[in-house]
Amino acid sequence: MDTPGDAIASIFMMVLATSGYLLPAIIAKCRNHYNRGAIFVLTLLGGWTLVGWIIAMVWAMLRQPTQPSNPVANAHPDRAESAQLPTPRKTPDNAAKVEIANNIADLLGVQLMILPEEYKDIEDKQGRIFRKYIGYVYGYIDAVLTTMGYDMSDMDIGVPITFHVLRKLFPNGRAERYIDFLIHNMNDPQVVIGTMHGGQQWFDYAKPGSKGAPMGLFGFILEEKELRTAPDACLEVARRPEGSVRESDAAS
Predict the structure, then answer these.
(1) Which residue among 5, 35, 75, 224 is least crowded, i.e. fewest CB within 10 A of its CB?
(2) Which of 40, 64, 88 is the last residue of a domain?
(3) DSSP code of residue 43
């Protein structure tokens, strides 16, 4: 029969284990990390895997960039007047959420303007989502919200704003599918890489005096599109053991 001391010890061990599991998220919160929302989600969903927990811990300990005082105007001076983000409120109403999402989508859309239409899709013809691409979008949204004083991990803020951004960037009616993909793949290494780049680029290019515009999303699109659309023959050759020859090649 368990004694009161055993019960207290069990509760203490449970609290200790939970704290250890959520340690990356706790550190990110204490440091007021600019990607603390994404780190919390990664820790919660991917911390059970050692790789996911290590990635979250390293991310939480990374040096933080300086946050800009007027991010939209500094990042895109030519759009400063038309893309002003609303003044942060503790609990934004639905209209404010839509306005925030529209402005973030407009800022991300700058990187898509020079691409042909067929390169703007976030998934290939087989419906496979480009992981770095969607990770970059998520990280960018997270960084903008953090700059405004909002927490991406707040389900009443992060999810609806991300949904509206995805719906505006990709008006194909599949925004819910993309949200579900993010929820279940936050610990995917490619998604994490995209998320880190998206957040970092927002702060790098939003600093006062910075020139140019973020182009990481543009780069990820080209990279993943090229990998997915490589000719089948090239892929087949790449998979062959060195020195192997197909029967049809030998016959010729």
Answers:
(1) 5
(2) 64
(3) H
Last-in-domain residue among 38, 64, 90: 64
Task: Tell me the pLDDT tens digit for each residue of 186-231.
Answer: 889 889 988 988 888 888 777 777 666 667 776 777 777 666 554 4
- Cα 161–203–154 angle (5° rounding)? 30
What residue numbers bound the domain in which 11 lies?
1-64
The pLDDT tens digits of the residues spanning 125-151 come to 888 898 988 999 999 999 888 888 888
pTM of the predicted model as reported, rounded to 2 decimal places:
0.60
66 by Cβ neighbours in 10 Å (0-12 / 13-18 / 19+) ranks as exposed
Q: With cut-offs at 50, 70 and 90, classify the pLDDT of residue 240.
A: very low
List, in sequence order, the alpha helices (H) in the chain: 4-21, 23-30, 36-46, 50-61, 71-75, 94-109, 131-148, 158-169, 175-185, 189-206, 216-228, 232-239, 247-251
Contact by Cβ (8 Å): 220, 133: yes
Total of domains in the chain? 2
CA distance 12 to 16: 6
Q: What is the pLDDT of residues 75-133, one digit of tens each?
A: 444 444 444 454 555 678 888 899 999 999 988 887 787 777 777 888 888 888 989 88
Shared domain for 91 and 39, answered yes or no, is: no
Q: Does residue 144 sit in the same domain as residue 211? A: yes
Are residues 84 and 6 part of one domain? no
